Every structure is written in structure tokens, then in C-alpha cells.
């Protein structure tokens, strides 16, 4: 039942995600020289905000709040004033000192609201550390590990991170790479059989094939639409 609910929530949220907002987060994080992890957590918080209909501040406040909170979680602090300036520039909004003071108050309030939506659970920030540890424990080669890292970055550009656990996200990342490797080696078997072999070999999670299949398909859709 939980999988059906997660899929329904994901499918209902997806159309409401504005590409310009995603671009704003990406561009601002790059301008601030923030690491990939902070960008990923910014996306995660943004998706959580969009899933919560009660949080509807204007674009500058929302994007600034999302990035500033992610910076706090990841301990990559940047001046809030600079974040606000970059956000207002992206949305072509002129701000003076008085507006900035109003924005600061709104951002502080929105950050608290976002933390409540996340239930003050910031465990998702450990996902990259967990992936790095798994790659070492399972002795993945450097090429496979690099592909997993890239794929995790891509997963974190989708709302999957707010509906599925870290274990499920990591399993999806590694399994999708595993399938690609097996196909490259011209091994033929159906997906269910391949997942059973994969699960027995790596013992990453108890997640069902249906769960991982849904996530993998969404990831592959992301690649197909970007080409």
C-alpha cells in the first residue's frame, strides 16, 4: 500500500515542478561555488516545499530559504544577503535594503516551516557518504563508483528523494548501473531475475522489485527526455 501511495504522490507532484525554479537553484548554487551535495539537498528541500501546499512564499523567498537551509544542513554556509541578491537577479526583481530586511524575516520564518515539513529529519544529507561507504564495502571499481555518483546526482534532481528511503535511493542507483553493466556484457535475463541475483549478491535492502523498478524507470525517463 505504501508503494502505491508513494507513486501516486510522486506522479501528482511532478507536474507542479517548475523548470525555472530548478534552474534558479542550480545557477545560484554554482554562483556560490557550493558542492554537489548542497545542491542535491537544496533540491530535496524544494520538492518537500512544493509537496506542502501551505508553503507558498514568493519565488525569491522560497528559493533563498531552500538554499540557505541546505547550506546550514551541509555546513557550507554562505551569506544570506548574497543568496537573496542572486535569487532576486534570477527572477528580475529589484530589491533595496528595506525589502531585503522584509525578505530576511520571511526567509527565517519559511526555513522553520520547511524544517517542520521535513520533520526536522535531515538524514538525507548523509546519502553521499553512505554511497561512498557502500562503494568501498562492495569493492566497486572506480568506473562503476563514478557512474553511481553521477546517477545519484540525477536522482536528486527528482522528487524521488522525498518519497523513498536512502536505502531505496541507493539501491536504485546501484541496481540501474548493475543492469547497464550486465547488458553491456551481453547477459540476457529478465529484470526480476536480474534483481534477485543482484539482491542476493549485494544485500543492500529489502525493497521489493516493484519499488526499485518504478524508481529506475523514472531515472531512465529523465535521461530519455534530456537527449
UniProtKB/TrEMBL annotation:
<protein>
    <recommendedName>
        <fullName>Cyclin N-terminal domain-containing protein</fullName>
    </recommendedName>
</protein>
<dbReference type="InterPro" id="IPR036915">
    <property type="entry name" value="Cyclin-like_sf"/>
</dbReference>
Amino acid at each position: 500500500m505504501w508503494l502505491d501511495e508513494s507513486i501516486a504522490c510522486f506522479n501528482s507532484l511532478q507536474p507542479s515542478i517548475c523548470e525555472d525554479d530548478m534552474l534558479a537553484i542550480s545557477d545560484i548554487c554554482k554562483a556560490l561555488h557550493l558542492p554537489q551535495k548542497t545542491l542535491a539537498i537544496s533540491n530535496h528541500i524544494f520538492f518537500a516545499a512544493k509537496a506542502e501546499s501551505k508553503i507558498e512564499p514568493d519565488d525569491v523567498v522560497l528559493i533563498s530559504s531552500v538554499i540557505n537551509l541546505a547550506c546550514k544542513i551541509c555546513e557550507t554556509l554562505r551569506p544570506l544577503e548574497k543568496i537573496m541578491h542572486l535569487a532576486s537577479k534570477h527572477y528580475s526583481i529589484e530589491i533595496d535594503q528595506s525589502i531585503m530586511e522584509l525578505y530576511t524575516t520571511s526567509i527565517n520564518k519559511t526555513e522553520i516551516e520547511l524544517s517542520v515539513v521535513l520533520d526536522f529529519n535531515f538524514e538525507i544529507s548523509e546519502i553521499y557518504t553512505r554511497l561512498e561507504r557502500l562503494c568501498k564495502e562492495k569493492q566497486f571499481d572506480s568506473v562503476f563508483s563514478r557512474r553511481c555518483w553521477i546517477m545519484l546526482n540525477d536522482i536528486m534532481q527528482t522528487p524521488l528523494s522525498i518519497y523513498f528511503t536512502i536505502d531505496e535511493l541507493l539501491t536504485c542507483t546501484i541496481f540501474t548501473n548493475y543492469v547497464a553493466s550486465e547488458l553491456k556484457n551481453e547477459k540476457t535475463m529478465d529484470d526480476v531475475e536480474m534483481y534477485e541475483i543482484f539482491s542476493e549478491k549485494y544485500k543492500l535492502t529489502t525493497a521489493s522489485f516493484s519499488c526499485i523498478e518504478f524508481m529506475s524507470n523514472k531515472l531512465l525517463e529523465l535521461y530519455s527526455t534530456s537527449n
